[in-house]
Fold each of these.
Amino acid sequence: MKYLKRSWAVVDLDCLEHNVNNLRRLTKPRTKIMAAVKADAYGHGDKYIADRLARLGVDWFGVSCLDEAISLRTHGIFQPVLIFGVTPVEYVSELAKYNLTQTIVSHEYARSLSEAAKESKVCVQGHIKLDTGMSRLGFVLTGGDMEPALDEVEQACSYENIRIHGIYTHFSCADEPGGDSEEFTRGQFDLFMRALEGLKFRGREFGLRHCSNSAATISYPEMHLDMIRPGIALYGLNPSRELAGKIDLQPIMGLYSSISLVKEIDEGVPVSYGRKYTAHRRMKVATVPIGYADGYVRELTNKARMLVRGRIANVIGRVCMDQLMLDVTHIEGVCEGDTVTIVGTDGRHTLTFDEMADLSASFNYEKVCLLGKRVPRIYRYHGEEIGMVGLLDN
């Protein structure tokens, strides 16, 4: 497959299948899976990821906004899609046209959405969102008496032109096992279940109850309910370091570049902007065409490592917008065109998004999501390259 070998990512769909199957082994047979594919499938590319997930029998898809949902539909995804964020009511016709399910975050929003749907002569599908401690979106249950919130949920469920068939909440610290965080997560779940009981007493029941993100799916099987919502675990990354090893996951993305120039510089010569690195001996330096415009952030300056010919090469000097430099003095035979492994395995060494995140005071979610659009994604399945999405495809 022909593509510009400036910098590129390889996405292994066999590893995606491996992760889905292992997540399934944690759940009961009747528990559905909603795959979180927001943010362009966490930077992996929603087109090929969603297609493979659909072929693997995933029941639902979760996205952040209307545009992401429509993207799935245009890629031929026909499974139910839940929009986690708020869609302005003036787009109610699009919600109906594309058969999308909208999160209902408040009584006022439900009323406005219903009025807009009635005016447009459409019906909208919805899931109720309960705020059990995230303090982001949803009917607020925290603070003691939940009856006022349940009153508002009941009213939201009664509006014409909205069909409510699910209810959910979101955990804020399920990826932090033990201690106060575990107690808080269990408290959120207890609050959610008490709310469901209160609504049932009022005659309101829901076909789909869900609250388990990747971390809760791994750590709290009793909280799986009718459906789980894995995100980062689908892509083979751990929700947190504390959960590493709790489930067999395989990272589905590797990140690569190539050497565009090799040169020698003398002792005392500075490297890159700001002279943050100065050669302490005669050195061989390789220029690599990836930078912060590609998501390889400046915080990695003088910290990160890459692999060249199976050897570790340190990033030296400030990371530029489009390029950076490596110290390859100790690596024999390095030349222009050599492949550089940024995330992945070469020889006996493996570099990960987790390491990259640690070096820049970040976390793995952010690293994959920040990967720029001009880094093409190359998709492999059963060892063959089956597709590519690049800058010109966006």
Note: The longest strand covers residues 124-131.
Amino acid sequence: MADQALVDRLAALHNLTDAPRAELEWLVDHGDLKHFEIGDVVVPVNAPVDYLFVFLSGHYAIHLDRGFSARRVMEWSTGEISGLLPYSRLTTPPADVIVEEAGDVLCVHRQHLPALIQTCPELTSTFVHLMVDRARVFKANDLQDEKMISLGRLAAGLAHELNNPSSAIERSAKLLAAGVEEAGQASQAFGAADLTDAQRAAVSKLKESCLATRFIARGALERADRQDAFADWLRDHGADDEMAAALADTGVSLQQFDELAAGLPPAALAASIRWLAANCALRQLTSDVETAAGRIHDLVGSIKRMTYMDRHTVAEAVDIAQGLRDSAAVLGHKARDKAADLSIEVDDDLPTVEGLGGELNQVWINLIDNALDAIPNGGRIAITLRRDAKGAVVRVSDNGPGIPADIVSRIFDPFFTTKAVGAGTGLGLDIARQIVLRHRGEIDVDSAPGRTEFRVWLPAAKAR
């Protein structure tokens, strides 16, 4: 005989007010009334969820740490229903279900759910609707958390990438003031030198040659040897060897300086060399600023393209190749830290793919970032974009240790991760899979020791 007082408590709950009393009595007959105090764990993380819970009073919550801070992702209070619901595939909670305010809970064991479905159709319908709502809330939280993690990943990558060019600009700007002053004094000394028009023309011609040929890439050892040679030459000709660094960065040879020295008196040679070095140093500083500023401009452009900033969130033609390059650029610091060989190969004749470029870029960021985590120092990552019979296929492969065979089938599951606590959320690949599926595409993985390859197929846009 059902406890009628408990049946009345159930009938007063907002989710059960329309339920037939006979079904509520069935629920009471097959349930256990439990009381929980503050701090109790209703269901611990990784433990099986064996009960349907009707929260008669109190407050309960799940706090989940997805890599940046623990926050509340789900909560229940008086009148809420959760736990193992009819037709639910829930197995374990993502974190402990903690009691935040003491209360009573009616617990119905999983063994009674088949009978519940047959005997209580109204309650079953209510519970199924609640299960759908719960899945929607969790999915929204998952997507928001992964967006925040991706944003953090982009911010970290951008900060690393901006550090070098911004430091170069700051360093060059500080040196420019002294460089301008030195150039002015060197110009005065050069103007006061007793040179013929032909001699001045020869110096000016060498200056133009210095400025035009300074952009020559040299290794550190070659540059050091060249600087030492120029320093020796300057000392031999009575000039300041501090100017060697500025002259060594040009493409002018010592033979050209020998030819200049042969046509100038010693006193005039020192003034001419100083004037040449001051101009070369200024040009180098301004070029460094220009190069660094251009790098910052390119990085900001990459971020704007990746996030589709100032663009409407509607499906449109997506430049997948540019998205892959931008993703690799943002993660460039991580690749350099591991001395990784990261290559991108793209077919020339690619089909048009329509979608949300910002979402697809989130997929590329996840796949490349995971590959960088997997490879050892000096590892390799190969990214290819090819035409496929159905559209386009992106392959991201690495030479890391591979994914163990016993877990490869679970890597797309929500919350599953092989990374250390706090280093991964277990949502990246799940979100990537959802994004690809929304674009009518497919994603899979093939892994063996020494090689893992993720493949993403995206269909070609339908002809309009």
Note: Residues 121-192 form the longest helix (72 residues).
Amino acid sequence: MLRGRKLSARELLRAYTDRIERVNPRLNAIVTLDAEGAAAQAAAADDAAARGDGLGPLHGLPIAIKDLADTAGMRTTYGSPLFADHVPDADAAHVALLRAAGALIIGKTNTPEFGAGSQTFNPVFGVTRNPWDTALTPGGSSGGAAAAVAAGLLPFADGSDLASSIRNPSALCAVTGLRTTPGVVGSADPARGDDAFDALSVCGPIARSAADAALLLSGLRGTDAGLPLARPRVADLPLPKNVAGLRIAWSDDLGGLPVEPEVTRVLRRARAVLEDAGAVVSDAEPPLDDADEVFQVLRGVAMAGKFGETIRSRRDQLKDTLIWNIEFGLSLTAPRIAAAIRAHSAVFGRMREFLRDFDVFALPAAQVLPFSVDKEWLTEINGVPQETYIDWLRTCSRITVTAHPAVSVPAGLSANGLPAGLQLVGRYGGDDRLLAIAEAAEAVLTPEPLRPPL
């Protein structure tokens, strides 16, 4: 409609901002909204269309950026009081790509303090609520993004994922979220102090369908060829049109991790639907127990490197879980770090070898259903203690260590109407094929898209 000029960017923006005004106060998903700047961008987009200019793949589509990513001239707080008034003068790499693709940058979505944790709250903007039940969390750390997309405040949103920060909120909000192969989306900027060699933290799309996620990825994709993890786009064919004949490896719990019974029930029902549609589903999983140590150590190293000075000078302005994670990183010894680096490569190799026999690996995207917005993190699942604020995310964090792309798709609703997500892991670099598999799975799992009862 935008390309055919049946709808103007101004009209579309007005529809979204009207909905944001009506619904967002109940969710606190979008925490900064630049109405004046958005209007100017929409007018420029309409002028370009009227001139017959070449239009980018995201022409005229509004998006709000996760508040961890810099946006030129727009407040960016990282969820921290230390940066409550921070206004960057340049865009993060993937934000610049979105602008170039024609997207309208209209605001920012909420995130935990420095993106640490999968419950979206911070001292600057407060807590974000789940549109399926506003007494519950949307997850995190891309919780504001997932809640906004699920509630129809945005057509799609960007997210970032280290432990589970795209996949967890996507599962808890019934949207589709892709953790990309490292290097597919160029998000590191060494000039700003980013780790150009970081393969754990990536950017990716969050949308209401796999097809919409693929559209957003077309605007996000791109990187500086001079960066260490630069990954050129390669042909990823053939792309499946349906699930018939797909070879799916299936795990209920990824090596015995605790998973809430209702999540297991929803996912087993999803498995039966896939099998009825012709997928060949087998109980199989790669051994990934050692991935927990790799993840904890490499995350700790990153925390120490990024916040080591901050904890010495501003400790009183950091939340307790972040302090613990930084101090854990500072306590690590060289032999333990070296062992984790060696094991990281071994974990990658095992997943690559495992997927030679399967098209995709399926497992829970979140081990739990949405829980109280007042609970910072889950200390137990099914009576099994979770020792740290990231232990309850291990069906995702173990996959992070493999470096393979993974997508969370809506699998269905629990008996009390809450969403559960199915995580699909694809072959390394096969992001496009993985999204095509996700689209085929969605066609049978949720032929009627799941929408929260707002």
Note: The first helix runs from residue 9 to 27.
Amino acid sequence: MTEKKDVAIIDNWIAGKHEKPSTNSYMDVTNPANGEVIAKVALSEAKDVDKAVEAAKKAFPAWSALTFKARATYIYKFRELCLKYREELADLVVLEHGKNKAEAFGSIDKGLETIEWACSLPQVAQGRIQEVSTGVYCNEVREAIGVVASIVPFNFPFMVPMWTLPICIGVGNCYILKPSEKVPLTMHRVAAIIKEAGIPDGVFGIVNGTAASVNALCDHADIAAVTFVGSSKIAELVAHRARLKNKRVLALGGAKNHMVAMPDCNVEMCSQDIVNSYTGCSGQRCMAASVLLTVGNQPELLQNIVDKSKKIVAGQAAGQVGPVIDEQSHKRILGYIDEAEKGGAKILVDGRPWATEHKKGWWIGPTVILHSNPADKALHDEIFGPVLSILEVESKERAIEIENKNPYGNAACIYTNSGGTADWFSKRFSVGMVGVNIGVPVPREPFSFGGSNISKFGDLDITGDGAMEFFSKRKKVTTKWNPAREKSWMS
């Protein structure tokens, strides 16, 4: 690994300015394409969280007192600036994460969709009023819950923070972000954009770091809610720790998404969608479908998948596959491929040569594994790389049995030309998100994103109306001004 002489210093962002960590300690941030050190990010602890919370508490009364419309005006300005700096943000995503440029733009645009939805909060967050008894009115309004912490992963440096940030502050809360220490540059730039948008200091803050920062956010008495996106193991720990402090918590975990291909599927459309799903973002997304169950022998479909996978080249231009995030991920992914091969699985497309062809960085090519043993680890563990495992099954009932035994519950997809078959699978998949001929079934606003089983710990979903509900509390006011004309229990 080589290190550049001049690297960015990524400090915390508290009360509208950069703050060095109390530890005065930093860790390297590397470019996954070549292994070079591109930045040093602050390692924070409880003292830094205290400071960020105090700034947020100071900003909260005035920010939460604004109308929804007034807050939406700030969020709209933030959206316009993100559009202005769209290419710069995409370049940062490519630099620190390794996505190709088209994927980086796509992730920016998906984040912008959530910001746009947050701009509609004056319309969608309206309260209710009704005359519930003669002369008696019930009025319900949404109010902010306070200071909220959001802990996000490395795989989408801009998009995942935007799942929570605009909606959270749009309903009147103040927000503290803990970015992944692997990709802190993008949101470091966003902090300056937020300030340029005129959003008051303290409404948005960043505390960088690792486990110490996460634990301090979960434990802090003045943080009302915590959101998390990452592995299921850590999601469960975060959810348990936050709930011990009586906080609201929504922790999204990992995934092992299954695709089922029926004999009547459109081979060309299906094969292209499968390849896009498992190779997109180098397979580093919770919506990547990593297991394909073919009902019956489908050699034409397999050949199409193999042919399309072999045509993909390494790189960071549109249509190419970039590196995985770091050496640890690189070794883990290669280990799963090696183990599957040693266990008797056939490697139909082998991405391992990319690891030796690229002397710098963490590169693995698209890999397709045909399994004969349903117990193979690659069929069950979340690999988080450009690896597709294929298993032939004898019936749709067997396909559902395999999918339902999977402990995760994020997403699943059925490929078929039959509406009845699609409906049959949609009702039986044990997941939060279902695709019909769509291998990456991400709901778009106003629908919310979220899985089930060990893919989600906590309540509600993380975008759209689910997030609006999570980040707000309902206050109910019952009013009577004049004596009732008719007698009732409320008279």
Note: The chain has a mean pLDDT of 96.
